[in-house]
Amino acid sequence: MTTEFIRGLKENLPTTEDVLGAVGLQYERSATTTALSTVAAFALGALVGAVLTALYAPKPGHEMRHDLNDRVRHWGERMGWSDRRAEDDEAAAH
């Protein structure tokens, strides 16, 4: 009778995961969290790759900075973020 009682208790007891989850000590990752961390890691890797590519480009520094500045300014104008005028750029160049 005692062994049957113990077997019955063992079958009805919650698992370790259930107990830890109930008190908030276990973290379960959702599919959204996993997807967002994967996308963030990819974006960070792309950014680091772009920076390293710019640093090790075969152009001198001042040419590379000028080219990157032109590309970023052009991209900003296409996005509608730039309020700079051509006269400002010409005055700064002299």
Describe this structure in words.
The chain is mainly alpha-helical and 94 residues long. The protein has a domain at 58-94. It is built from five helices and no strands. The protein has helices at 2-12, 16-23, 31-55, 61-79, 86-93. The longest helix has 25 residues, at 31-55. The radius of gyration is 30 Å and the shape is rod-shaped. The mean pLDDT is 79.
H/E topology pattern: HHHHH
Helix content: over 70%
Determine the number of helices (DSSP H or I, runs of at least 4 residues).
Answer: 5
Strand content: under 5%
Q: Which ranges are low-confidence, i.e. pLDDT below 50, for 5 or more consecutive residues?
A: none
Radius of gyration: 30 Å
What is the 3D form?
rod-shaped
Mean pLDDT: 79
Q: State the end-to-end CA separation.
A: 99 Å
> What structural category do the secondary elements indicate?
mainly alpha
Strand elements, count: 0
Major pleated sheet: none
Keywords:
mainly alpha; 5 helices; 0% strand
What would a concise description of this structure say?
The chain is 76% helix and 0% strand. With 94 residues, the protein is mostly helical.
Furnish the topology, listing elements before pairings.
Layout: H1 2-12, H2 16-23, H3 31-55, H4 61-79, H5 86-93
